[in-house]
Write a structure and sequence with these properties.
The chain is of the alpha/beta class. It has 9 helices and 14 strands. Strands 2-10-9-8-5-3-4 form a 7-stranded mixed beta sheet, sandwiched between helices.
Amino acid sequence: MKIHNYSAGPCILPQEVFEKSSEAILNFNNSGLSLLEISHRSKDFVKVMDEARALALELLGLENKGYEALFLHGGASLEFLMVPYNLMKENGKAAYLDTGTWASAAIKEAKIFGETVIVSSSKTENYTHIPKEFEVPTDANYFHCTSNNTIFGTQMKSFPTLSMPIVCDMSSDIFSRTLDFTQFDLIYAGAQKNMGPAGATLVVIKSSILGKTGRNIPSMLDYQKHITAESMYNTPPVFAVYASLLTLQWLKKSGGIAAIEKINQAKAALLYAEIDRNPYFRGAANEEDRSIMNATFLLENEANAPVFDTLWKEAGISGLPGHRSVGGYRASMYNALPIESVQVLVDVMQDFEKKVAETKF
């Protein structure tokens, strides 16, 4: 049976990435060595790192525009710490938009370094929407936002124009939709959503914003040191970087971000149309802020959950239960999820509708 993987992360990746990665584990570049045992300083892997960094910038349209791409350790959670360390001045201030669990976690880390202003928050509404009207202090050293909120199924559709650096956590929607990425001065994303396996974090940074804090930054947390070392300051996560390169190559071959965005929009439209049509379901997030990556939805009657759960499991669907903060269900439709898998879920929802209706008579 084909498994339809809706996991929120680590998540589905293209089949060809699994195949090429498995080949490299056995014999990388016909070297007779496994990818898991080669030196990160070998010519073969240095080429992988260089190509991955260059391709990330190319896909985002940021090549030759003063940006650097890094593959680092620690996931997005370490970036919550590294961002203020590198951008918040001594006795400085940072501005944050609170749109979900991970935005809140980033705020917690920033508060360690100095004044952290929450310009707006949707926490009291359980993060069901993206705040629209807010003012950012003009003396803030940077503004931080989270573009897509995996747990709650919301996504920012627009971003403010500011005179300060804009930092964006794009962990769960990077490479999924076209944006003017030059509006951001620093983008970070854990690989395990749209880019590769867990273990690597992509950081794209405009180098001109660095070196202005007056802080003494520990070497492993200093973006400039990682830039100077070309993302090789210490041993990088070799396998995760290689699999990320394969995924980026797949994306480029598929037509790039613009092409995958059309597919992602079609997938989201198909599922949301069924959520809105079917009387036994309702969306968890406000309609105008719905994410095209993570669709969150609830049963109108939780007593029917055993019936629905049986149906989607029998159909080979995996990873559908929602996060405990929201409950219900969460369908994560990352780049590699085919629209055929979305149709399977829609078919299950329609079958569920018929079965529940029949039991009422």
